[in-house]
Design a protein that fits this description.
Blueprint (H helix, E strand, L loop, with lengths): L2 H7 L4 H8 L3 H8 L10 H11 L3 H5 L5 E5 L2 E8 L3 E6 L13 E3 H10 L9 H7 L7 H8 L8 E5 L6 H4 L3
Antiparallel strand pairs: 1-2, 1-5, 2-3, 3-4
Helix pairs in contact: 2-3, 6-8
């Protein structure tokens, strides 16, 4: 997550964020301006920032989560995200219910699948749609995390780790 962009979207200064989170200004400034990486922060700092931005720590760190793929309420695949690839365990080979054609792929390929489950990046008024999802920029993973990759033209959707959802909760129709 780009902290500077997120603060600007909320019209919040670094000083104000520091006061609201309890994170010292001197510690927050390098995080906001990218001279210190969020991955090097203590858990307490990450928790305060995730509470302030109303997101998970994984969202804050932009860490892709493992997820399952469903066709309606039928689980069709599990996806385990590794450091440089994704491992897929498919439970069906039915092409109408399945979006994966192989059992392992690069994170770039997985990113392309997320992109296919989103609106066109050049869509008119895309900023409005991103804003409604609480996003400041087009990020297919984050869009799919919020929309579950559900689309009008099929019954495929994603359930991320820890979620308790069904087809009725996410369907677009």
């Amino acid at each position: 997550m780009n902290l500077l962009t997120e603060l600007q979207l909320r019209n919040v200064s670094i000083n104000e964020c520091s006061k609201k989170t309890g994170i010292p200004y001197g510690s927050l400034y390098p995080l906001v301006h990218g001279t210190k990486r969020l991955e090097r922060c203590e858990y307490g700092t990450l928790k305060k920032l995730s509470d302030f931005f109303n997101c998970s720590i994984d969202d804050l760190l932009d860490v892709p989560q493992n997820f399952s793929v469903f066709w309606k309420d039928e689980k069709t695949a599990d996806v385990k995200v590794l450091d440089s690839s994704a491992r897929i365990r498919r439970y069906t080979k039915n092409p109408a219910k399945q979006i994966f054609c192989k059992d392992q792929m690069s994170l770039f390929e997985l990113g392309e699948i997320f992109k296919w489950r989103c609106w066109d990046e050049r869509r008119e008024n895309i900023e409005k749609y991103l804003f409604k999802l609480g996003l400041s920029q087009f990020n297919p993973y984050k869009i799919c995390k919020r929309t579950h990759g559900a689309m009008y033209q099929d019954n495929i959707w994603f359930k991320f780790e820890g979620e308790r959802l069904s087809w009725e909760d996410v369907k677009c129709r």
